[in-house]
Design goal:
The structure holds two protein chains of two kinds.
Chain A lengths: L3 E3 L4 E4 L4 E7 L4 E9 L6 E7 L2 E5 L2 E6 L4 E6 L8 E9 L6 E2 L3 E6 L1
Parallel strand pairs in A: 2-11
Antiparallel strand pairs in A: 1-3, 3-8, 4-5, 4-9, 6-7, 7-8, 9-10, 9-11
Chain B lengths: L4 E3 L2 E4 L5 E6 L6 E7 L6 E7 L2 E4 L8 E4 L6 E5 L8 E8 L7 E2 L3 E5 L1
Parallel strand pairs in B: 2-11
Antiparallel strand pairs in B: 1-3, 3-8, 4-5, 4-9, 5-6, 7-8, 9-10, 9-11
Amino acid sequence: QKEVEQDPGPLSVPEGAIVSLNCTYSNSAFQYFMWYRQYSRKGPELLMYTYSSGNKEDGRFTAQVDKSSKYISLFIRDSQPSDSATYLCAMRDFGNEKLTFGTGTRLTIIP
Amino acid sequence: EAEVAQSPRYKITEKSQAVAFWCDPISGHATLYWYRQILGQGPELLVQFQDESVVDDSQLPKDRFSAERLKGVDSTLKIQPAELGDSAMYLCASRTGSNTEAFFGQGTRLTVV
């Protein structure tokens, strides 16, 4: 079993819809949680960075962390065609600077 | 805006040949990572540097891969000899220190034929 599980999709939604992306993990030591967006043939771009449990909002993006359930989510409101990309969750523990990634979810927003 | 620079962007090489990738991290970033991303998968760590020292190379196939960061700034990742299974995106990332996020470069897409 992988330390971080993420549904690879693909996921297609109409423009304007709310998108929910999720990851589960098994390592209870993970403290830092990140979401990266990766366009085709590009490097990952950091979207959200959170520490421990709770919510964080940045514009149309909201990240949620539930450490008791070992479950993290990224919500995208008012989705746009430019949001079409692969979304990678990543996490690490306090003493270890190595990022552990999910496989990524490929998202397509249909105009 | 500061960014992590990588070159080349694309590389095609024949099996058994040597290949090298270069990374210049964001200025002042002491921590540098090399990740490998196979198509359809998430990035996996190959090697981590803190300044010029290797912190973690446990996943680096040392019989064919080598990495260096001689002056604690830019870094080179080498593969010799390349194998078909090495075809992937090689990503470099850097961060300034603890409790900060890592920033990735655009990657080098390697195709071994």
